[in-house]
Please model this.
Amino acid sequence: MKWVNDKAKTLKQGAIRAMFDRANTMTGVISMGIGEPDMDTPSLVCEAGKEGLDKGYTHYTPNAGTMLLRKAVAEKSSVKDLHYDPATEIIITNGGMGALSLLFLVILQDGDEVLIQDPQWLNYVAQVRYCDGTAVRVPTDSEHNFIMQPEVIESLITPKTKALMINSPNNPTGSVMPLETMKKIAEVAIKHDLLVISDEVYNTLVYGDEKCVTIASLPGMKERTMVVNSFSKSYAMTGWRVGYVAGPAHIIDRMTKCQENFNACTNASAQYAAAMALDHPEVCEELRQIFSRRRDIILEELGKIDGIKCNDPTGAFYVFADITAFGLSSADFCNRLLEEQKVVCIPGSAFGDCGEGFIRISYTCGEDDLREAAGRIAKFCEGLRG
Ligand code: PLP
Model:
């Protein structure tokens, strides 16, 4: 790998992409592997994107994003009650991933430790390492619905701990952190002077009586929390690459300088469309209702399969199902499921050691496909039981 530095050499393709590459060589595959809404962006948002182009949103925007979108985030998004100043406390980024990378670039150095749940979405650990930080895994288990426990977090804090990641609703488990737990975690963060990074990209996707609260709204937390959000999941806008961070001005200022030097800004007409999208929360609600119905279907179908135990996923679009009864590793289970029944699920071990024995099932396909896939999983499990 001539000319490539040592850090770049360590980057690996994640297990999710690898699974897709395999599935792409096959026909008749149903994917329950993907972590994005399968539907196209609602037409109202697409029209706004076109309007943005017609209105001349074809130039660089301010590095922190257009004032139009920053104001819309401050006044109309889920953090509106926290009264962030759009001029200094909000930055528009290239999706949630762009938000996280800018953030880690400006806060981490010399092995600073970041506490990250295990199992967790893969990219946090990769980004933290790339930015010279150390990812410290916070183990969780199915008994606690894979929710981080305050005392476990506290036991892992060292003088090098700088930040704590929270992701609720969670990828890969679909769990939503109970308010009581969140309050105790906030106390730990305050006691140990930690920065909290709250990834809320799934916050419009909650089901039943579940409510989504941002940790930034708890007493003493706004000044130590970076709220990360994105239009990708809530508005089915993954390809538009628009996200944002709301947080203390001095960190937002450094992220803006970093963005100036690395990416300039987020796509201008996409920012215009995102600002218009925030006027239409009914779009998120429609998507939420679709996922809510699918969730009911997949939980009902999986519930009929002997040996599969599902957690209680009240958010996002994932079920984290226990497959330990079959005596296979989660990777073997998923590889064989793909080969024998042509269904893509993601091994829990891909998200951390605590995910072993589980598989992530995304209900990001239509209702007919969901039923068909569940039938194939049932057949596969029947075969394993012999
Ligand atoms: N955070 C979590 C937990 C995710 O699952 C994802 C995408 O899968 C993201 C952030 C980033 O999404 P995007 O960069 O498309 O906004």
